[in-house]
Specification:
The complex is a heterodimer. Chain A is mainly α.
C-alpha cells in the first residue's frame, strides 16, 4: 500500500505565472513520456517480474515517479496560479483553459489526453527492462527540451533535478537488466521468458 | 577484473557479456558521494552519474531551511535505496543507508513536532488533528 508524505521530493517555488510554459510542462504530467505514465508503467510491470531485485527496483522507482508527478502538478499549478485572462490568451492557453480552467489535468502538450498505450507492459523481463531504459531516455529528452523552451530560473531549477533523476534511473534499469541476464541461460538469453516459463 | 584505470565518471565492463543484449556498466561503488545538500541540488548522490544538460547545474541556495535539510536526507536515503536494489551485497552502502535512515527518522520527528505532521503517524503525540494545516506541498511558498 502507499502512505502519503506531506512534502515534495524537491522544493517547487515559482513566483511568476506563465501559462505558455504550463502548456508545455503539462506534457510531463499526462504526455507519452510523462511521470504518470512512468509511475504506472513501473508499478504495473512489477507483477510479472520473477526476481526480487526487479520487484524492488520497479516498486522503488515507480514510487519515486509518483513523487515526480506531484512535483509536475505543483509546477503547473504554480505557473497558472493568479494568471489573468489576458495572460491566458497571450500564452496560447485558451484551448486548455476552456476545458480545465486552472485545474491540472493529464494531457500531452499537444492536447491529447493521457493514454495508457504509453505504459507498455509486455510481461517479458528483457522487453520490459529495455522499454524502461528507453522510457527514461525519452523523459530525459523531454526535460532537455523544456530547458530549451524555458527562461524561468524557478522552473529550470526543478526541471534540472527531475532530468537528472532520469539519468540515475536509466543506470539502475541497465544494472537490473544485467542482473536479470546473469540469471538467464548464458548461451542464449532469449531461450525462455522467465516471467512466464517455469 | 582490474578497473584501476577507470575514473569516477566511468565504470568497468565485464570481460565477457552476452551478445545481442544491452550492456550497462555496473556502478562499482557508492563512493564518492556528494554531501546531502549538494546531492539534492544536483539530483543525484553520485558524481559519476551527474551528467547535466549543457553542463548547467543548480546552484545551492544561499541559506537552507529545516524542510530543505529534511528533503536532502530523505533524498539521500532514496538514492541509496535504488543503489542497494541493484547492489544488495554492498554492506558498506547498507551501513551508510542505515545511518541516513536513522538521521531522517530523528529529523522528521523533530520537524513534525515544530511544523506539523509529514505523515499520519507523526500525529501520535500531536495536541490536535493538525494534518490539515497549511501549507500543502503544492502551494506556493516564498521560503521553504
Amino acid at each position: 500500500m502507499f502512505m502519503y508524505q506531506k512534502k515534495l521530493q524537491y522544493p517547487v517555488r515559482i513566483k511568476n505565472p506563465n501559462p505558455m510554459l504550463a502548456k508545455v510542462i503539462i506534457s510531463q504530467y499526462g504526455g507519452p513520456d510523462g511521470e504518470l505514465g512512468a509511475s504506472l508503467r513501473y508499478l504495473t510491470q512489477r507483477y510479472s517480474m520473477p526476481y526480487p531485485e526487479l520487484k524492488g527496483l520497479l516498486t522503488d522507482i515507480g514510487t519515486e515517479e509518483l513523487g515526480h508527478l506531484e512535483m509536475i502538478g505543483a509546477i503547473v499549478h504554480q505557473l497558472t496560479r493568479n494568471m489573468t485572462i489576458e495572460q491566458v490568451k497571450a500564452g496560447g492557453f485558451a484551448d486548455y483553459f476552456v476545458d480545465h480552467t486552472a485545474g491540472v489535468y493529464p494531457v500531452a502538450a499537444s492536447g491529447a489526453p493521457f493514454n495508457a498505450v504509453c505504459l507498455a507492459v509486455k510481461g517479458d523481463v528483457i522487453a520490459d527492462l529495455t522499454e524502461d531504459m528507453g522510457a527514461e531516455q525519452k523523459a530525459r529528452v523531454t526535460y532537455d527540451n523544456i530547458l530549451r523552451l524555458s527562461d524561468d530560473p524557478d522552473v529550470n531549477d526543478v526541471i534540472r533535478f527531475l532530468r537528472e533523476r532520469e539519468v540515475v534511473h536509466y543506470q539502475r534499469f541497465g544494472e537490473a537488466l544485467r542482473i536479470a541476464s546473469e540469471k538467464l541461460d548464458q548461451k542464449n538469453v532469449y531461450a525462455v521468458n522467465p516471467a512466464f516459463d517455469k | 577484473m582490474d578497473n584501476t584505470e577507470c575514473t569516477y565518471k566511468q565504470g568497468p565492463l565485464p570481460g565477457c557479456a552476452p551478445l545481442g543484449l544491452a550492456a550497462m556498466p555496473s556502478q562499482a561503488s557508492s563512493q564518492p558521494a556528494y554531501s546531502n545538500a549538494e546531492a539534492l541540488s544536483r539530483g543525484t548522490l553520485f558524481p559519476g552519474l551527474d551528467l547535466p544538460f549543457m553542463n548547467i547545474v543548480n546552484k545551492m541556495p544561499a541559506k537552507t531551511t529545516p524542510l530543505r535539510e529534511l528533503m536532502a536526507l530523505d533524498f539521500v536515503c532514496n538514492e541509496l535505496a535504488l543503489y542497494l536494489d541493484t547492489h544488495s551485497a554492498d554492506t558498506e552502502a547498507f551501513e551508510t543507508y542505515k545511518a541516513m535512515l536513522k538521521l531522517y527518522e530523528e529529523g522528521r520527528n523533530t520537524y513534525a513536532s515544530t511544523y506539523g505532521p509529514l505523515q499520519r503517524s507523526d500525529m501520535a503525540y500531536a495536541p490536535d488533528f493538525n494534518w490539515l494545516g497549511d501549507p500543502w506541498p503544492w502551494d506556493f511558498a516564498k521560503e521553504g
